[in-house]
Amino acid sequence: MKSYSELTRDELLTIKDELEKEYKEAASKGLKLDMSRGKPAAKQLDLSRDMLDVVNSSSDLKCEDGVDVRNYGILDGISEAKKIMADILGVSSDNVIVFGNASLNIMYDMVSRAMLFGILGSTPWSKLDKVKFLCPVPGYDRHFAITELFGVEMINIPMKADGPDMDLVEKYVNNDESVKGIWCVPKYSNPQGITYSDEVVKRFAALKPAAKDFRIFWDNAYAIHDLYEDDKDELLEIFAECKKNGNEDMVYEFCSTSKVTFAGGGISALAASKSNIDDVKRTMTIQTIGHDKVNQLRHARYFKDINGVYDHMKKHAAILRPKFEAVINEFEKELSGLGIASWVKPKGGYFISFETMQGCAKAVVAKCKEAGVTLTGAGATYPYKKDPNDSNIRIAPSLPTEEELKQATELFILCVKLVSVDKLLETA
């Protein structure tokens, strides 16, 4: 297929005319489709429906330690829930606190604690002249929203094929005391689906921060969200590597069951060194007497152990895999060779990262919306919602039905072609 950039102005105008007719027809269908966020589909949520029957009015409501989960107590979570969450992350239960239904809450709280109280006796961030965070881009918009809310200066770190540009990370972390943290989604990154290589993880673990209160916010949201059982990415366990370098306190790791059981009723966890765990508990005792232990018990009895979790995730993969493949196959069929777009084929996670020609992403998203398909806002995958190239779009295939996804993908491709032709005509 001939690249659009190789076409003459007349050829581009001919294509534009055809595309505009197709777009007008598509827009007349009155579509109302949403690919804006990585929400589990109803079929995925139904997979955990039986969990609601595991704990009922006739159940023994004591956890394995003998505590009645209906009552107050157990600040860091019941032991059987801690074990499951620890096994998901590959760490010891002693280094885990179980929280409520969203790990985003934990991340917000950890930044808030650092702002108000400092970390392990350090000066509270709110009392410093400058606080900076490194932000691998494209990245997770809600990470950036947290640090923006607290007035933290965010610095873009380009993502490479095996993770963040570690030369830049080392330069900032090892030399600038005002750099206090970095956001990371290390396995099947949001939105690119990249898993950090062993070398990248080892370089993270070997950092020599200028700031003693520097922390890696290791958001391992997709630790078990593999699409292919026989071809899945493996992520090196960072705490073991940190221990080798005497950096055990440098990492906060997060995960949840929001996309495993119910987004509206999951459990989440923080993994950290003993020193960090004790530091968190110091303020947690004021904040709460404990999170929802009934739900923790429900999860523990439903899964029984980590093997139950893995078996459950295979069912999720069976639903998600055809959706991802359908989108990627359509991209390859309709866009390959045109020179107007690129994309990453992930092996897991919840997103497909799509790159338009420079200066086209906002126009593509707007055109899709006009015709009834809502996408994540262009720029959302960058701090301050400012994509310097206006090229990245995050595709979320999970929520729509197969038929809806087909319609949305076809319209998206049509809009990419149309906007690209318009862009090329500006200089043709």
Describe this structure in words.
Strand 10 and strand 11 form a beta hairpin. It is globular and about 75 Å long. The protein is α/β, with parallel strands linked by helices. The mean pLDDT is 97. The strands form three sheets. Strands 2-9-8-7-6-3-4-5 form an eight-stranded mixed β-sheet, with helices on both faces. A three-stranded antiparallel β-sheet has the order 10-11-13, with helices on one face. 40% of the residues lie in helices and 14% in strands. The protein has two domains: 156 residues, Alpha-Beta Complex (Aspartate Aminotransferase, domain 1), CATH 3.90.1150; 244 residues, 3-Layer(aba) Sandwich (Aspartate Aminotransferase, domain 2), CATH 3.40.640.
Please report the distance between the alpha carbons of the first and last residues. 20 Å
In the CATH hierarchy, the architecture of the largest domain is 3-Layer(aba) Sandwich
Strand content: 5-15%
Tell me the number of structural domains.
2
Structural class: alpha/beta
Quote the average pLDDT.
97
Task: Jot down its keywords.
alpha/beta, Aspartate Aminotransferase, domain 2, 2 domains, 13 helices
Short description:
It contains 13 helices and 13 strands.
Please write out the topology.
Layout: H1 9-27, E1 33-35, H2 42-46, H3 79-89, E2 96-99, H4 103-117, E3 132-137, H5 141-149, E4 153-160, E5 163-164, H6 166-175, E6 179-184, H7 198-205, E7 215-219, H8 238-244, E8 251-256, E9 268-271, H9 274-287, H10 293-303, H11 306-335, E10 341-343, E11 352-356, H12 361-370, E12 373-375, E13 392-395, H13 402-425
Parallel strand pairs: 1-12, 3-4, 3-6, 6-7, 7-8
Antiparallel strand pairs: 2-9, 4-5, 8-9, 10-11, 11-13
Helix pairs in contact: 1-13, 4-5, 7-8, 11-13, 12-13
